[in-house]
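Catalogue entry: protein
Contents: sequence, fold tokens
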Amino acid sequence: MKTIAIGVKESVGSGIPSRISEHPVFVIRRAHQLASAIFAKHLTEQDLTSAQYCVLAVLQHHGSAGQNELGRLTHLDRCTISVVVRNLKARRLISAGKDETDSRKTLLALTAEGKVMLRSALRQSARAHDAVFSVLTDAETRRLMSTLHKLLRAHAIQVAD
């Protein structure tokens, strides 16, 4: 596949890349597309989106959570977490129950079916991870992930809801 360079005039000293293919937004978006496509390919059998997988994994780790808390833990906006929760409930992968300490609050948790699905998805997710990073050494993978986490931490206040 040939990369098309869209010319963007660079201002002297501005730091703006002269080619769009060198702009971080473009490169990160393309990397996201690649990783998402590989993830989707590996989780075809489970029919899970990356957001659904993330919610199941977070619930496994935390045991249960309210929908707002789940949105914060997964970094999904209110609308997206609402759709994801609705779809997972419809598939009977998560259930909703009352919080024993706060009767106004509904807690979401994995069902037995959700736990089985997540076990299968975890195996496939590991395969997707290996496929995404197959062209990098272990050291390069660790360095890339460390750099991405550093960027996210540094800009977390700016992008927080």
Remarks:
- Strands lie at 64-65, 94-98, 106-110.
- Residues 1-12 have pLDDT under 50 and may be disordered.
